[in-house]
Write the structure tokens for this entry.
Amino acid sequence: MTGVTAIVPTWNRRALLERLLGCLARQSQPVEEVLVVDNGSDDGSAEVAERAGARVIRMGSNQGFSRAVNRGIRESHTPWLAIVNNDVEPGANWLERLALALQEPDLWFATGKLLCMDESGSIDGTYDLVSRGACAWRAGRHRKDGPVWSVARRIQFAPFTAALFRAELFRRVGLLDDGFESYLEDVDFGLRCALKGYKGVYVPDAVAYHRGSATLGVWHKDTVQRLARNQVLLVAKHYPRKFLLRYGWPILAGQLLWGLVALRHGAGLACLRGKLEGIRRFRDERAQVRDVPGLGAVLEESEREIRALQKSTGYDLYWRLYFALT
């Protein structure tokens, strides 16, 4: 494989960015260009990237993950795009393993195994799955690494935390939705890919380490508000009227349960703000919805996989309650 651009959206956390740039320089599969899209950092991140030989695009302010990634995609000119968060440290053969897996012409993206930086032997995530209730799960999150996570498989949803894509995919499916800003923008993109028949692959021996939510934190009020809002926007964008009726109870149960989880972590008010913002935007987002054949099959297959993996590796409380209710 030749012609890979690594797109790195970043906002502060200069030390993390330095480590990532070092990892990219040591890849066994050469990176043709490193493109750092700086979302208005004030800690010298842009200057560090330039000294390391990266091309830097200065956004001027924090315009969100989606806009930064989209700008990087537009500015790239190679046939392959590796999108990597600034809090990731990929192993030396991470890119090579992903590239080898994408030699099959019907595969469009690849993602590997993300291990937690601070928890030895614990998985941060593998690939994404989404329920009928429009709540997503990063498969394997906080599970101990083991055989179930060491099997390559075809997937429908690639986390944009660290993944490799054919550049042509973005011309066919479109860019990330700027309106999502951050969080679930990759699930929205994955739904669009799945509905057009573009699939990817999970490559367990492509290992990277992730310091999850290093910029804001998992239950930071801004993180929770965006997640809560974007769960509503997924429904607004993708569920035609008949699916609102068909999946009304799973949607309600899933969203309410997620709100209770946020409340348990002291972020109930942020969750409520996000839901209200999503509801305010609901009508405008409905203009994009289309009754696309196959949506039900995609959602139901994804939810069956969530249930199977939860059952085999131990239920999280949220999913135990969700499946009990639905």
